[in-house]
Amino acid sequence: MGLEWMAWTLPSALFFISIGVALTLMTVLEVYFPTIKRQGFLPLATTRGDRFFMSLLGSAFIHVIWLAVSDSPVLWASALSVGYGAILLRWG
């Protein structure tokens, strides 16, 4: 069975590849530099993995809302999501 039915595009393939690379990197970081829970601006103590998951979930919401309210290119939503993720991972 082939993958012709999936209609893969280069941006969607790069997206899933980058998620896989990020998960691999997070695993390696956890093995070599174990994380501890810490309290940032979020109202609960979180680990590195918790903040990464929340950044992925928030990025999905940013993209869905962007598509619902804007005709601008989705690349802007992606840039906004990268900034959101960086802030959440660093200070969340």
Can you put this structure into words, describing what you see?
By secondary structure, the protein is mostly helical. It has one domain. The protein has 3 helices and no strands. The chain has helices spanning 10-32, 48-69, 74-91. Helix 2 (48-69) runs antiparallel to helix 3 (74-91). The longest helix has 23 residues, at 10-32. It is flat. The mean pLDDT is 89.
Summarize the structure.
With 92 residues, the protein is mostly helical. The chain has helices at 10-32, 48-69, 74-91.
Fraction of helical residues: 55-70%
- Average pLDDT, all residues: 89
Shape: flat
Return residue spans where pLDDT drops below 50 for at least 5 consecutive residues.
none
How large is the count of helical segments? 3
The helix/strand order is HHH
What topology emerges from the helices and strands here?
Elements: H1 10-32, H2 48-69, H3 74-91
Question: What labels describe this entry?
Answer:
92 residues, 68% helix, single chain, flat, mainly alpha
